[in-house]
Amino acid sequence: MVLLLRVNLTQQKWNRFSTFEQMSNIGSDVFRAIKWKNENEIDSSRLAFERALELIDLTVEDPKNLKKLEEILRVRECLVDYFDGNNIYKSTDESWQNYFYQFNWAARLGA
């Protein structure tokens, strides 16, 4: 997994990452949110979920992602539905893990 040091993260620093690296880092927080949710660590899960949303918002603001906004914003919508809504899209822990693993793989390959 690509891990991001979260000290003084700015839009400029975030934009240096490829889209695959950005999505991989978002996925890391989603993985943490799922893990802590399943361990009934609600506060920790909530913080990881909120951090994932912050990273998605930075990703949306990155000019290189203009053509990818529809997917990125849909991911945000579905994550909010899953963690904070009624899960109308019927997401599962496994579906989120499968979705974000592909970005980990692509980031590792330097795609």
What does this structure look like?
The protein has 111 residues and is mainly alpha-helical. 70% of the residues lie in helices and 0% in strands. The protein is built from five helices and no strands. It has helices at 11-15, 19-38, 42-61, 69-84, 93-109. Helix 2 (19-38) runs antiparallel to helix 3, helix 2 packs antiparallel against helix 5 (93-109) and helix 3 packs antiparallel against helix 4. The longest helix has 20 residues, at 19-38. The chain is globular. 25% of the residues are buried.
Question: Which helices and strands, and how do they pair?
Answer:
Layout (H helix, E strand, L loop, with lengths): L10 H5 L3 H20 L3 H20 L7 H16 L8 H17 L2
Which characteristics define this entry?
111 residues, mainly alpha, 70% helix, 0% strand
What's a quick, concise take on this entry?
70% of the residues lie in helices and 0% in strands.
What overall form do the CA principal axes indicate?
globular
Beta-strand share of residues: under 5%
How large is the count of helical segments? Answer: 5
Major sheet description? none
Distance between the termini: 14 Å
Write down the overall mean pLDDT: 92
Following the backbone from N to C, one meets helices and strands in this order, namely HHHHH
- Fraction of residues in helices? over 70%
What is the alpha-carbon Rg in Å? 13 Å
